[in-house]
Amino acid sequence: MFCSHCGTQNETSALFCTKCGAQIAGEVPAPTQPPQPQGWPLTITRESQFTGALVGATVTLDGHDCGSLTPGQSLTFTVPGQIVHVSLKIWSMAPLQMRLRLWQGAHVTCGIKLGAFVNKLVIKNVAGAEVLEMP
User: Model pTM?
Assistant: First the structure.
């Protein structure tokens, strides 16, 4: 049993604390450590040197919208499982989407190139990934 006044551990049958003499009203639980976050970090970077600065790009992880990427921006997510499905979408004249399956340690670098008729989503670097679907 722990003293609620000074935190000293006492015997369970003690009525008063052996260190400070305070009355022990009841059992005080021992301090606990905060839970450590589970998962692994996933970073997705949009290159700044590609063209298409005004073309919007969004990131979806396992079906959940995680926000948009501006040129030169990186987003880091804590992924709880071993494998995650990522969707990168660009919004221009016709929305384009690329789907990837990533596993622990993955890092994705992407960009957008403007064309005469169709904008193109470019994956410059993918570590720890498999491309499931491309435009």
Answer: 0.59
